[in-house]
Amino acid sequence: MRRIVLAALVLVAAPLAAQEREVPYWASIKAEVLNLRAGPGRDYPVRWVYHRAGLPLKVVRVHEGWRLVRDPAGDEGWVTANLLSKERGGIVIGQGLAAIREKPSDNSKLRWNAEPGVVGRIDDCEAGWCDFDVGGRRGYMRAERLWGSAEL
């Protein structure tokens, strides 16, 4: 009987612990389709539908199994938490091509250029540079060119 009670407590405590993550924090879309709703529940109308896995979102509030998020355009709404990844995503912003370099330096070898709108994974940001991975192609990009790079 003690094992059943202990197992039940663990099952209840795990989702509660996940709720205690301090906001704001970065996340990314892990689903192929994600509905942004007007409120935290399936009864609220869908305001926007995302069709871009990996797109970064800023989580600004937590309510049960729902997250109030802000997207790169500044739009806010509620999404179900299980369709978000803890992986930190980034999207190239600004005008023109953004250089992705071998090392975090303007003098480092250019690996390739990314157009605004390219989505990838941010592994770490330091001293104005972010380690950015786009489909396994990795390099360093200036943090100012990545939405999702800011420290919270």
Quick rundown:
The chain is mainly beta and 152 residues long.
Main beta sheet, described?
A: 5 strands, antiparallel
CATH topology of the largest domain: SH3 type barrels
Number of helices: 1
Overall helicity: 10-25%
CATH superfamily name of the largest domain?
SH3 Domains
Give the helix/strand layout:
Layout: H1 2-19, E1 25-29, E2 34-37, E3 46-50, E4 56-63, E5 66-70, E6 76-80, E7 84-85, E8 89-92, E9 98-101, E10 110-114, E11 119-126, E12 129-134, E13 137-142, E14 146-147
Antiparallel strand pairs: 1-4, 1-7, 2-3, 4-5, 5-6, 8-11, 8-14, 9-10, 11-12, 12-13
What does the model show?
The chain is mainly beta and 152 residues long. Helix content is 12%, strand content 45%. The protein is built from 1 helix and 14 strands; from the N terminus they run αββββββββββββββ. The chain has one helix at residues 2-19; strands at residues 25-29, 34-37, 46-50, 56-63, 66-70, 76-80, 84-85, 89-92, 98-101, 110-114, 119-126, 129-134, 137-142, 146-147. A 5-stranded antiparallel beta sheet has the order 6-5-4-1-7, with no helix packed on it. A hairpin with a 2-residue loop joins β11 (119-126) and β12 (129-134). The longest helix is centred in the N-terminal third of the chain and has 18 residues, at 2-19. The protein starts with a helix and ends in a 5-residue tail after the last strand.
